[in-house]
Write a structure and sequence with these properties.
Helix content of chain B: 55-70%
Structural class of chain A: alpha/beta
Number of strands of chain A: 7
Order of helices and strands of chain A: HEHEHEEHEHEHE
Helix content of chain A: 40-55%
Strand content of chain A: 5-15%
Distance between the termini of chain A: 54 Å
Oligomer: heterodimer
CATH architecture of the largest domain in chain A: 3-Layer(aba) Sandwich
CATH topology of the largest domain in chain A: Oxidized Rhodanese, domain 1
Number of domains of chain B: 1
Shape of chain B: elongated
Largest sheet of chain A: 5 strands, parallel
CATH class of the largest domain in chain A: Alpha Beta
Structural class of chain B: mainly alpha
Largest sheet of chain B: none
Number of strands of chain B: 1
Chain lengths: ~160, ~180
C-alpha cells in the first residue's frame, strides 16, 4: 500500500515536472500548434465567409465583418485613447499586454480560429501589426489589421462607443 | 516486498488460484492495456492542441489563475501519458492504476460540479474527440472507466506485465 502511494506521488510529480518543462518550451513555440478549437466558447465562426480576406482590410471589409457580428475587434491604441472612443464592442489589446511577462486575458478568452480585426490610429501606426504578430505567435489564424484605423472608422460614420474595457 | 501480497484477491501470479482467476486476470490485462492506450491518446490530443485544452480548463470555472491553468494545461496530459505508458507496459501497475483512479475521480468531480453549476462548456477530456459535451453521459463514462481501473488495480494488471517479469526474475519473492 505504501509503495503504491509513493508510486502515485512519483507519477504525479513526474507529470508536473514534464508539464512545466513542456509548458516553458512551448510558450515560445506555441504558434506551431495546429489549433482549431471547435465547439469552444466564443467559436462559431465560419473560417472563410466569402473567401480569403487579405491581412490588411479596408473600411468596407471591416464593416462587412462588423455587421456579420462574429468578428472580435481589438483596439491596439493606448488605454486612454480607447476610453475616449473605440469601435463598438472592441476589446482593448495594446502591444504592452504581451510584454508584461504574462499572457493577456485575450488569449484565454478566444479560440484560435476566432477572426480578429486589430486597429490603431491608422496611417503610420504599427501597434496593430505588433499585436497581430503576437496573436499569430499564439496560433491565431484569422488575424487582420484594419488599415485606415480608428479615424477611418469614425469618418465612415460606423458605430463607436466610449468607456473603459 | 512482493506487490502481490497486497492484492485482496487470492489469484496467484499465473492465475491458477481459482477457476475464475484466469478469466479475471485476463480481463484485467485487457482493461489495463485499453485504459493505458486511452490515457496515452487522451494525453496526446491535449498536448497537440494545448490552447484548446487551456480553454476547456478555463471553461470549467474552477481555476481562474492563468499560471495554474498554464501549468495544468501541460501537466495533466503529461501525467496521463506517463500513467498510460506505465499501464500498457505493466510497470508499477498498482501505482499507475491508483494514480489513474485518483485522476478520474478528480475529473469526474469537476464534471459533476460543472453540471451542478449549470455551466455550458466543453469537456476537453479527449481534445475534440469522442464527444466533448458535458452531461450525464460523461459522468457515466468516467464511472465505467473508474470501474475498469479498479479491476486493473485489484488484479495487479493481470498477465503480461513488466512487474510480473521483474518478480519472475526474483524467484524467492514470487508467489
Amino acid at each position: 500500500m505504501t509503495r503504491t502511494l509513493i508510486g502515485i506521488l512519483v507519477i504525479a510529480l513526474l507529470g508536473q515536472v514534464a508539464g512545466a518543462i513542456d509548458g516553458s518550451i512551448r510558450h515560445v513555440r506555441i504558434s506551431a500548434a495546429p489549433a482549431v478549437a471547435d465547439g469552444q466558447a466564443g467559436a462559431g465562426v465560419e473560417s472563410e465567409p466569402g473567401g480569403e480576406l487579405p491581412f490588411f482590410l479596408d473600411i468596407a471589409q471591416g464593416r462587412a465583418l462588423f455587421e456579420a457580428g462574429d468578428t472580435i475587434f481589438a483596439d491596439a491604441r493606448p488605454i486612454d485613447q480607447y476610453e475616449q472612443g473605440h469601435i463598438a464592442g472592441a476589446e482593448h489589446l495594446d502591444p504592452d499586454a504581451f510584454t508584461s511577462g504574462e499572457d493577456p486575458d485575450f488569449v484565454y478568452t478566444y479560440p484560435y480560429d476566432q477572426r480578429i480585426v486589430i486597429y490603431c490610429p491608422g496611417g503610420e501606426c504599427d501597434a496593430s501589426e505588433l499585436v497581430a504578430i503576437r496573436l499569430q505567435g499564439y496560433g491565431y489564424m484569422n488575424v487582420h489589421v484594419l488599415q485606415p484605423g480608428y479615424p477611418g472608422w469614425v469618418d465612415a460614420g460606423l458605430p463607436t462607443e466610449v468607456g473603459a474595457p | 516486498m512482493s506487490e502481490s501480497a497486497n492484492t485482496p484477491v487470492s489469484c496467484s501470479a499465473d492465475g491458477s488460484g481459482c477457476p475464475g482467476c484466469v478469466v479475471a486476470k485476463g480481463m484485467a490485462t485487457l482493461f489495463r492495456v485499453a485504459l493505458g492506450a486511452l490515457f496515452i491518446f487522451s494525453g496526446y490530443v491535449k498536448l497537440n492542441d494545448p490552447q484548446a485544452f487551456a480553454f476547456a480548463i478555463k471553461g470549467f470555472k474552477l481555476v481562474e489563475n492563468h499560471d495554474l491553468i498554464s501549468q495544468a494545461t501541460f501537466s495533466i496530459p503529461w501525467t496521463e501519458l506517463i500513467i498510460g505508458a506505465l499501464l500498457v507496459l505493466g510497470l508499477y501497475t498498482r501505482a499507475a492504476a491508483g494514480a489513474m483512479l485518483l485522476m478520474l475521480a478528480v475529473f469526474t468531480g469537476a464534471i459533476v460540479s460543472v453540471i451542478a453549476r449549470d455551466i455550458d462548456t466543453t469537456c476537453g477530456c479527449f481534445g475534440n474527440f469522442l464527444g466533448s459535451k458535458i452531461d450525464g453521459s460523461a459522468v457515466l463514462r468516467n464511472a465505467v472507466l473508474l470501474g475498469l481501473a479498479g479491476v486493473v488495480l485489484m488484479h495487479n494488471g493481470g498477465f503480461l506485465t513488466l512487474d510480473g517479469w521483474r518478480r519472475g526474475r526474483k524467484p524467492a519473492q514470487d508467489g
